[in-house]
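Colleagues,

For the teaching module next term, I've prepared a clean inverse folding example: a structure given as tokens, and then the sequence designed for it. I'd like students to try predicting residues themselves before seeing the answer, so please don't circulate the second half yet.
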């Protein structure tokens, strides 16, 4: 787990999850390039890492343009002599239902999340291949990209797209010894604090109150709960892990499955519309896939914060595999 001598870039690391990632990578020994669009946040992040005893430098620029990607990589190389790890975390939200979502709402989220991930990974991968010593690409997804979420057409699209790109990059970069993985975090951030359901748990945790329901049933914790996975995937210990989508939050870590066929059926000559109308329900009815994240009800009383009965079943009846959107 020793990252001494390694150099990492973390986009969107001025605060929140990105800052937690950057600080943990530095704590493990890596020198870190911090990135944010806000000078104050970037400077404060660098100061926090240096106060912890680490090394950091800031690049203040919006993620998306190729020019920013080039600046991030050149800053890492010019300042610290090399590059080993890229964490693409930068993102924005423009939430609204489909029929109210503007072109700008959609394009802004696509530009920062999807294009920003692509341009930064392309630049980093090009350098890492030339450096010839392998490397680590860690891209941040979301449960929304895995299951969908009401009011987040743009966000669901980009987060699903990021995981799709990661699987492709794992194939393309394998010969160069570069791994590519997606992390699916669930944690309290400024974004989740805008949702009253989650803010109640964030406020309770900030006040030092135990929140086992949030940590176990919702997999909802702090940014620091996620940072250990980032450091692990950046390390030599994860050299054989690539093309994976790993979820983490609160007390839980989980491996998301890749999309796969769950039921198949064959008919000589193929399937007409009439054939499908007659047989679709009998073939697929019991296997149709759910959408959205299960959201169990919080416990009714303070002395029952687990949200489960003695058998381990959620009292709400919701699947225990569900987590909150981040």
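(Answer key — instructors only)
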């Amino acid at each position: 787990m020793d990252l001494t001598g390694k150099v990492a870039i973390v986009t969107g690391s001025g605060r929140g999850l990105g800052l937690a990632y950057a600080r943990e990578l530095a704590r493990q020994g890596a020198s870190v390039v911090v990135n944010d669009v806000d000078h104050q946040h970037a400077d404060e992040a660098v100061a926090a890492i240096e106060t912890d005893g680490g090394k950091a430098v800031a690049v203040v620029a919006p993620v998306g343009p190729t020019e920013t990607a080039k600046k991030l990589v050149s800053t890492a190389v010019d300042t610290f002599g090399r590059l080993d790890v890229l964490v693409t975390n930068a993102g924005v939200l423009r939430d609204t239902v489909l029929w109210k979502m503007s072109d700008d709402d959609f394009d802004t989220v696509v530009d920062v999340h999807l294009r920003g991930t692509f341009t930064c990974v392309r630049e980093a991968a090009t350098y890492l291949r030339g450096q010839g010593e392998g490397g680590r690409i860690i891209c941040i997804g979301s449960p929304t990209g895995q299951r969908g979420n009401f009011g987040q057409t743009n966000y669901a699209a980009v987060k699903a797209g990021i995981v799709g790109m990661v699987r492709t990059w794992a194939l393309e970069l394998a010969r160069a010894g570069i791994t590519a993985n997606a992390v699916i975090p669930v944690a309290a951030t400024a974004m989740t604090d805008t949702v009253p359901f989650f803010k109640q748990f964030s406020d309770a945790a900030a006040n030092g109150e135990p929140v086992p329901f949030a940590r176990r049933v919702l997999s909802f914790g702090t940014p620091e709960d996620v940072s250990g996975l980032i450091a692990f995937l950046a390390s030599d210990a994860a050299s054989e892990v690539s093309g994976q989508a790993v979820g983490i939050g609160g007390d839980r870590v989980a491996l998301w499955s890749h999309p796969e066929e769950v039921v198949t059926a064959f008919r000589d000559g193929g399937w007409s519309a009439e054939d499908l109308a007659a047989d679709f329900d009998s073939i697929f009815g019991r296997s149709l896939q759910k959408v959205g994240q299960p959201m169990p009800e919080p416990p009714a009383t303070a002395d029952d914060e687990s949200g489960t009965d003695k058998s381990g079943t959620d009292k709400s009846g919701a699947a225990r595999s569900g987590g909150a959107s981040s």
